[in-house]
Amino acid sequence: MKIILTSESSINGDLENISAKRDILISKKIALEIKPHDVGKVYNKAAEEFENIIFQSKNAVIHSNGIHNSLAKNENAKMYCLGKYTKIELQKYFVNEVIHPIYNYSSENLLSIIEDTGIKSKSYLIIKGSGGRDLLEKEIGRQGGVVKVACMYERVTRKDFLKEQDLLENKNNYLVVSSKTALKSLLDRIKRFELEYKIIIVIPNERIFEGSDNSLISDIMVIPNDSNAKEYIKLIEEHNGK
After folding, report:
1. Which of 109, 204, 224, 234 is deepest in the core (most CB within 10 A)?
2. What is the pTM of this model?
3. What does the pLDDT look like over 185-211, one tens digit per residue?
4. How far apart are CA 89 and CA 240, in angstroms?
């Protein structure tokens, strides 16, 4: 079998290290390139004054560096994110309280936490990438929150990021994908291959594959994105042994 990492992730390094120790083939073929937006001072006032700041990804933290100084002035704001790795990134820059779901990192679970605090009339700055999920902004706005969305970057498909020679013939190829955008780019590449391969898509939740063409792949595995690298490898090895 072979594992191919198509999305940047905080556990990629651990996955590579564990795979090397177990003689598992693994490689990185990252589907998307991040292009930061130059937003100038558009969001500085909201960053300094809004009561709640929501980061929808680790990239949202990294590529919002243009407003970090303004955010740092807003020490009383609550900061929200989807998971522990984004929280670790936030704590490099800010002293604010950071809140995230303990298990099953998702916008749905984060929204549930926010709803428990009461949304109506409170202000929310949502920091994300262009084309990122809009569940939070829609639901918070629907429930009476004041919402401002700051798109700090966009994701662009890397040309020829995956080639046929990257895949094994007659063996399982496990392609780890973390977003719907990366999955679309991946399936577009697979369509162009001349041969058929045993491709298993590994995703953090079923939503990512909704509406996609499953005729191009052999199987789908769902591994929640709060899993660690050892759990990933264990589940993939078990699947490969079936």
Report:
1. 204
2. 0.87
3. 999 999 999 899 999 999 999 999 998
4. 34
Cβ atoms 212, 182 nearer than 8 A? no
Per DSSP (E only), the strands in the chain are 2-5, 25-28, 32-36, 52-55, 78-81, 98-99, 123-129, 146-157, 172-176, 198-203, 219-222
Place of tokens 């003689």: 23
pLDDT tens digit string along 50-76? 999 999 999 999 999 999 999 999 999
Percent over 70 (pLDDT), the chain: 100
Characterize 66-84 residue by residue with b for buried, 16 or more Cβ atoms within 10 angstroms of its Cβ, and e for exposed.
bbeebbeebeebbbbbbbe
Q: Given strand 172-176, what is the order of strands in its sheet?
A: 25-28, 2-5, 172-176, 198-203, 219-222
Rounded to whole angstroms, how far apart are CA atoms 183 and 197? 17
Q: What is the pLDDT of residue 134?
A: 96
DSSP state at residue 167: S
Domains and CATH numbers, the chain: 2-31+160-240 (3.40.50.10090), 35-155 (3.40.50.10090)
